[in-house]
Design goal:
The chain is of the alpha/beta class. It is built from 22 helices and 20 strands. It folds into 3 domains: 189 residues, Rossmann fold (3-Layer(aba) Sandwich); 157 residues, 3-Layer(aba) Sandwich (Rossmann fold), CATH 3.40.50.1220; 193 residues, Rossmann fold (3-Layer(aba) Sandwich). The strands form 4 sheets. A 6-stranded parallel β-sheet has the order 4-3-5-6-8-7, sandwiched between helices. It has a 6-stranded parallel β-sheet with strand order 16-15-17-18-20-19, sandwiched between helices. A 5-stranded parallel β-sheet has the order 11-10-12-13-14, with helices on both faces. α3 packs across α18, α10 crosses α14 and α16 packs across α17. The model has no long low-confidence stretch (mean pLDDT 97).
Length: 576
């Protein structure tokens, strides 16, 4: 890192600077990859990081770099790093930072910024913005480093804030002046901090564990819900052991699918409504009672106050946030699940046989009802025909990472494509946000080294579609399937006035998305039937070549907002 300063009087002194101290601090703490868009004042930071052996993945838009960092955090349990320029680049990255925080993914957004003196007097600097103030309410913590000697401490604080307790996003403000600041190389080296035990285990006390087990023991119709916190925790063997030892049916939230294979005999995924309605004691492991679980009350949950909840979560404030939690177990999931397993002993009694068989019956009938639809070879394809083909491919290649966004494309894929391994399904998460697709796909390929299949609604794809150039540039094994139904939800809406503008949900009909991929040297395929789709995807996964399959879906097949149309407010004025 050192340069010689010969300008000073006397003995020449080895110097370092802000750029190099940041890189050294990151490397000291085991960071290997930065997701970024270069520009003033951080271009050289990316260059030097690459020169020092870090992987610097350069995107076409910061939101996608930020989404890549966020999902890298989810997959690795270490903060993902995103590096942006000031004001507009920072703001572009901020959506991803806020989304990461909402989803409890650890990431650090590092943005270059203008000089404090000019920003604070609002004198109109290049890309002037008080970024720290803007970031603060949207993330877990926000820090600014003003002096080179504080870089070690600043990065250590960012790491701890991102991964300890409930994980989330952290903003780190890097004023341009900091990057060029110099200090003695030896003093600089000593100022760096290696973070020891960044996410300490949080072991639950015996009492809450016993309380939870008492409740579970007395249950007639128990249910376990696994959320993405359980997937994040990487306590896969313990969680599986707990589910299997308890004999209790479990419901995976979408990103917890695969924690146990979806074909597991205790999976109640295909009996969702029934188990929510009829269960009497529900144990959530790394899942919140937010909108995705109807806040733990209302019609979906059966008669009011008939349920008792056990919740395992690292965040004590989560308890009672939506419904009363009869048995809170606060701690990290690995420790809590191990403690439960131990306290269960060897004589744990399986839940009543009537409950198990009721759930199994429902699963069987839902699965059987769906099965024939998944075999259809209709042209144009419907969601079942197309996703049936992809389901068979994933079954044969269970280590493929599935990225999924859209409305109908998302909702049908969630229930149709079985997942067999933990953290192999990445999707729109807590906000239902469109635009995660290509960022997640890039990071999934880089972080896991496994093939990636991104199943994208045509609208969803558009939010990050330019990153197919990034995928081609880094030659990543990503196969994108665009479910092209000519628009948002459906392609059939019409402008009621008969005017020249099409309806707001409708796109250019029969768009040739595959040609975009060809423009960058990737493989483009136009697929009109499940057979053609199968051939194209199998070939892509075999070859590892960046591929985009334009899958033509019947434009009438979808429904408004997929499975969540009920969330659309009703107009008091009748639709014409
Ligand atoms: O038990 P029952 O009988 O109920 O049956 C259930 C299961 O038991 C059963 N099941 C099975 N049966 C048989 N076999 C198997 N294996 C099986 N597995 C399950 O199936 C049913 C359903 O099961 P599921 O899915 O588990 O249950 P359910 O009831 O759906 O679960 C409830 C939820 C809430 C947990 C679930 O629905 C869920 O997770 N939903 C997430 C929804 C979501 O987040 N959607 C995305 C947002 S929509 C909208 O906002 C969009 N926008 C606006 C926009 C956004 N989002 N972001 C930004 C930045 N800007 C704008 C846009 C623009 S979507 C969108 C684009 C859409 O267009 P596209 O072209 O991209 O996509 P297309 O629609 O395809 O055109
Ligand atoms: P889902 O959308 O799958 O239901 P959520 O994002 O709502 O999942 O919930 C995830 C929960 O997991 C959060 O409340 C978070 O605090 C918790 N969590 C994340 N990591 C851990 C961990 N290592 N130990 C315990 N709880 C965790
Ligand atoms: Mg669509």
């Amino acid at each position: 890192m050192a340069e010689q300063n010969t300008a000073t009087e006397g003995e020449p002194q080895d110097l370092t600077d802000g750029f190099h101290l940041i890189i050294d601090a990151l490397k000291l703490n085991g960071f290997e990859t930065i997701y970024t868009v270069p520009g003033i004042p951080i271009t050289d930071l990316g260059r030097f990081a690459q020169a020092k052996g870090m992987r610097v993945i350069s995107f076409r838009h910061e939101q996608n770099a930020g989404n890549a960092a966020a999902i890298a955090g989810f997959l690795s349990k270490k903060p993902g790093l995103c590096l942006t320029v000031s004001a507009p680049g920072f703001l572009n990255g901020l959506t991803a930072l806020a989304n990461a925080t909402t989803n409890c993914f650890p990431m650090i957004l590092m943005s270059g910024s203008s000089e404090r003196e000019t920003v604070d007097l609002q004198q109109g600097d290049y890309e002037e913005m008080d970024q720290l103030a803007i970031a603060k309410p949207l993330c877990k913590a926000a820090f600014r480093i003003l002096h080179a000697e504080d870089i070690g401490c600043g990065i250590a604080r960012a790491i701890r804030a991102a991964v300890s307790g409930r994980p989330g996003g952290v903003y780190l403000d890097l004023p341009a002046k900091l990057l060029g600041q110099t200090m003695g190389a030896e003093a600089g080296r000593k100022s760096l901090v290696k973070v020891i035990d960044p996410a300490p285990r949080q072991i639950p006390a015996a009492e809450p564990v016993a309380r939870a087990l008492d409740l579970l023991k007395g249950a007639k119709r128990p249910l376990i819900i696994l959320g993405k916190g359980a997937a994040y925790a990487q306590a896969d063997a313990e969680i599986r052991a707990l589910v299997e030892k308890s004999g209790i049916p479990y419901l995976p939230m979408s990103m917890a699918k695969g924690l146990l294979p979806d074909t597991h005999p205790q999976s109640a995924a295909a009996a969702r409504s029934l188990v929510l309605q009829k269960s009497d004691v529900v144990m959530m492991i790394g899942a919140r009672l937010n909108w995705l679980l109807s806040h733990g009350k209302g019609k979906a949950w059966g008669p009011p106050h008939a349920k008792r909840f056990i919740q395992i979560d690292i965040e004590p404030k989560e308890m009672d946030s939506n419904s009363e939690i009869a048995a809170p177990v606060v701690g990290d999931i690995g420790s809590c699940v191990s403690a439960l397993l131990e306290a269960m002993g060897d004589k744990w009694k399986a839940p009543p046989a009537e409950w198990i068989s009721e759930v199994k019956e429902k699963v069987k009938s839902n699965v059987e009802r769906m099965a024939p639809r998944l075999q259809n070879n209709n042209v144009p394809m419907d969601y079942h025909g197309a996703l049936g083909a992809l389901r068979r491919i994933i079954k044969d290649r269970p280590d493929t990472v599935l990225v999924n966004e859209g409305a109908n494309t998302l909702d049908f894929a969630r229930s149709i494509i079985d997942i067999y391994q933990p953290r192999k399904r990445l999707d729109v998460g807590t906000w239902g946000v469109m635009g995660i697709g290509m960022g997640f796909a890039v990071a999934a390929a880089i972080e896991t080294g496994k093939p990636v299949l991104a199943v994208e609604g045509d609208s969803a794809f558009g939010f990050s579609g330019m990153e197919i150039e990034t995928i081609c540039r880094y030659n990543l094994p990503v196969c994108i399937v665009v479910f092209n139904n000519n628009g948002i939800y459906r392609g059939t809406d019409v402008n009621p006035t008969g005017g020249a503008d099409v309806a707001p949900t409708v796109f250019v009909k029969d768009s040739r998305y595959e040609k975009m991929m060809e423009a960058f040297g990737g493989v483009g395929v136009y697929a009109t039937s499940p057979d053609e789709l199968t051939r194209a995807v199998v070939e892509a996964l075999d070859s590892g070549k960046p591929t985009l399959v334009n899958a033509i879906i019947d434009e009438k097949a979808g429904t408004e907002s997929g499975r969540i149309g009920n969330l659309n407010p009703q107009s008091v004025v009748a639709k014409k």
